Amino acid sequence: MVGQAGRLAGRFIAVTGAAQGIGQAIAAEFRAEGADLFLLDIDGPSLEHAAAELTHLPGGALLHAAADIADADRVAQVFADAALAQGRHLDGLVNNAGVNVFHPPLQTDAAEWQRAFAINLEGAWSCARAVLPGMIAAGHGVILNIASTHSFTIIPGTFPYPVVKHALLGLTKSLALEYAAQGVRVNAIAPGYVATQKVLDWWDTQPDPAAARAATLALHPQGRIAEACEIARAATFMISDECPFMTATCLTIDGGLSQRQHA
Ligand SMILES: NC(=O)c1ccc[n+]([C@@H]2O[C@H](COP(=O)([O-])OP(=O)(O)OC[C@H]3O[C@@H](n4cnc5c(N)ncnc54)[C@H](O)[C@@H]3O)[C@@H](O)[C@H]2O)c1
Description:
Elements: E1 12-16, H1 21-32, E2 36-41, H2 44-55, E3 62-66, H3 72-86, E4 92-95, E5 102-103, H4 110-138, E6 141-146, E7 159-160, H5 161-179, E8 184-191, H6 197-205, H7 209-219, H8 228-239, E9 250-253
Parallel strand pairs: 1-2, 1-4, 2-3, 4-6, 6-8, 8-9
Antiparallel strand pairs: 5-7
Nicotinamide-adenine-dinucleotide binds next to α1, β2, α4 and α6.
């Protein structure tokens, strides 16, 4: 389901990690709402496929680039290329690309620690750095970081993912306060469990995937987890101009799970 048409008309918005999952759902929702899009993903073939599917839907410009957001030079280049191709600066960014890096703390080697931070935090910062000067010059821009309920709660054995997702909230608040007076808003969404490949893969790594799935659903007050489109609809509102006084905040979308004291 998509909302009323045209809520993002005239906007030029980048979405990272747009080849699948939450990022793909956000891209589809934003296109349906009239945005011009710049999509990034490390997985070039899947991104090509996702972009081709979107071009079948009515909408504005659709640019895309294969890029590893952990590569700061590549990020700067593809954002500059997109702005040049469209003849204007980006006025929206969704930092969605991310990876699960889950270990017990003392079994986390330096490479895994570094990978978690390079993609989930430094990647978001590199993309923000690429768009902020244009937003500040224009006096208008919105950045939305896809955080997690791991940004304020801990599941043992998922280290250092919650450490880096806590830091992503810190980045959100810091940039929001630094650039509020220049017309830039920076917010976050904290999803709980969302039915994407990442979660299906995690269930599949468990000794009994069906039991793991049932246990996850049973944790939730509504007896289900979120669909990616439910995150995308909230993202549309937060990246739009419908909430101009909303900045430095984080919207939790977890079906109430993080407020539950006991099952
Ligand atoms: N699925 C969930 O339950 C859930 C819950 C809370 C938060 N999140 C967050 O939402 C975001 C999206 O999650 P998802 O479930 O859709 O994941 P996903 O694995 O389905 O999709 C992530 C996308 O990001 C891309 N990507 C990964 N590393 C990249 C890199 N270095 N550079 C560019 N692109 C890269 C992947 O190729 C993929 O297309 C992540 O930041 C994740 O931490 C997900």
